[in-house]
Amino acid sequence: MAILQRWASSSFAWGFLESLAFADAPLQRWWRASLPGRVQQWLSHWAAGSLAARAAEPVAAGVFCLVLLISPFVPTAAVGAVLAVGLALVVLLFAARTRPLSPLALPVLAFWLSGWVSLIGSPRVLLSLDGWLKMTLYAGGFALGAHLLQKPLYRTLAVGSYLAATLPVSIYGLLQYVNGAPPLATWVDPESPLADTTRVYSFLGNPNLLAAYLIAAIPLGVVGALVWKNWAAKVMAALAAGAGALCLVLTYSRGGWIALMATVLVLAVLLWPWLGERLKPEWRLWVPVVFLGTAAAALVVAVVAVPAVGERALSIFDGRDDSSNNFRITVWGAVFEMIRAYPLTGIGPGNLTFEAIYPFFQRPKFDALSAYSIVLEITVELGIVGLLAFLWLASALLVQGFTVWVRRAELTGALWCAAATCAVVGLLVNGLSDTVWFRPSVQVVWWMLCALIGAEYLRAHGQVDQD
User: Fold this and answer.
1) How far is CA 64 from CA 44, 75, 359, 391, in A?
2) TM segments (predicted)?
3) Which residue, among 430, 423, 461, 438, has the nearest Cα to 134 in the 3D structure?
4) Are the C-beta atoms of 244 and 166 separated by less than 8 Å?
5) Which of 89, 254, 302, 306 has the maximum number of C-beta atoms within 10 A of its C-beta?
6) Which long-range contacts (CB under 8 A, 24 or more apart) does 224-230 make?
């Protein structure tokens, strides 16, 4: 890690990445000098004695935790209603308290504005308005989290709310595996030996969606078990990580499996140097050997002892011989044609617009509700402009998250940032072959992770008051 720290502090390449991600942009100085920043300062003085202003932050924290608690259990409309309340509270917090801007504010704003541009240029403006409103609500959720998670107490409450919500989700999924669960759709090739395999989906109704929702529980649960001092909280976090990982495996989601491996690998790489500093010298070599050996043995046992796992994993390489692979490849071909027809600003945001335009490009008998890849989905909906904005956001997340961990100005915050960065990696990997990233239960987790990384970056650079 010392080598990485020296490289990050002196490398021209890393300096370029930080500049590209606007990690060191003078946002606070610009904001204070701007008209909106001056208005905010004036309003904060005006609202200093207001009872509503004093109550705004605790209420906002309650709303933010509520949306994390209910998102896997309630319909989309209910999540949207809570996010709408959160958006209103963002406006009140804007007036009540001045806090530093998240370093991710610019890429998030660019991504949201790309949705606005796409809406204006959409061939189905009214349908795209639905998608744009959802983008706005999610951006408001990020803004709310970016404000709140600068305070360690609210960070603990938010992460704890998410982990607490994953426990009943995972337990119900495990019960489905034990007792059996009827498939709600054709999730496995009906002609394959896995046609009768139980794929758990818990309260979310879709195994791929369940896998994506649980990805962040693994790194956040591990770090919670390490840093929380209350033993009940430690046990809850460890159970959330363990049950979440097991339930994710039992979804038989191939994209979820790959994402899980990527998440665990990045988490191990990041935590090993920190753990090594706390071990006796003679243990520093053997711990990674034992860890890698155990992981490899578990993988071999899973593939050999549970034939369904091996069959499902190998089906990734079957190409068009697997019906799920063939379906995705065929849909991707149609989506590429859609992108060529609407390259710059896309067809407009939202699944309703996709469902209206896709039939003009689809192959016979290959109806689809999405592009089955977040990269393709963003490109077809928001065009090249939206894709570039999203790539900017993703790169900023990874650069800032890695920067916080390498520098480790404050250990607890750096550990949380490392966990969030691992979860972001997992969700991005999962999204390469699916679009469950756009579903509310996953979106609220994604924007919480974004807010957490931005808040920890500010804290690592001494820009956050520890109030």
Assistant:
1) 22, 17, 38, 26
2) 61-94, 101-119, 131-149, 156-175, 210-228, 235-252, 258-275, 287-309, 371-399, 411-432
3) 438
4) yes
5) 89
6) 224/159, 224/160, 224/163, 226/415, 227/412, 227/415, 227/416, 228/156
Residue with tokens 């744009």: 132
Tokens 């956050």 locate to: 464
Q: How far is CA 438 from CA 83, 138, 300, 387, 463, in A?
A: 15, 10, 33, 15, 32
pLDDT score recorded for residue 70? 97
What is the average pLDDT across 434-450? Answer: 94
Token reading at 125: 């403006």
- Alpha-carbon radius of gyration of the chain: 22
Q: What is the 3-state secondary structure of the chain?
A: CHHHHHHHHHCHHHHHHHHHCCCCCCHHHHHHHCHHHHHHHHHHHHCCCCHHHHHHHHHHHHHHHHHHHHCCCCCHHHHHHHHHHHHHHHHHHHHHCCCCCCCCHHHHHHHHHHHHHHHHHCCCHHHHHHHHHHHHHHHHHHHHHHHHCCCHHHHHHHHHHHHHHHHHHHHHHHHHHHHCCCCCCCCCCCCCCCCCCCCCCHHHCCHHHHHHHHHCHHHHHHHHHHHCCCHHHHHHHHHHHHHHHHHHHHCCCHHHHHHHHHHHHHHHHHHHHHHHCCCCHHHCCHHHHHHHHHHHHHHHHHHHHCHHHHHHHHHHHHHHHCHHHHHHHHHHHHHHHHHHHCCCCCCCCCHHHHHHHHHHCCCCCCCCCCCCCHHHHHHHHHHHHHHHHHHHHHHHHHHHHHHHHHHCCCHHHHHHHHHHHHHHHHHHHHCCCCCHHHCHHHHHHHHHHHHHHHHHHHHHCCCCCCC
Task: Return all residues near 45 (Cβ < 8 A) that are at least 6 apart.
Answer: none
Cβ–Cβ contacts within 10 Å for residue 304, how many?
A: 10
User: Burial code of 184-211, b = ≥16 C-beta within 10 A, e = fewer?
Assistant: eeebbbeebebeebbbbbbebebbbbbb
CA–centroid distance for 335 within its chain? 24
**Could you read off the pLDDT of 245-297 as tens digits, one per residue?**
999 988 988 889 999 989 998 998 888 877 777 666 666 666 666 666 676 67
Question: What are the backbone angles phi and psi of residue 151, rounded to the nearest 5°?
Answer: -100, 120
Measure the CA dihedral 145/147/151/154, to 10°. -30
- Token digits for 53? 């202003």
Q: How far apart are CA 227 and CA 414, in angstroms?
A: 11
User: What are the pLDDT digits (tens) for 37-95?
Assistant: 666 666 666 665 566 666 778 999 999 999 999 999 999 999 999 999 999 888 788 76
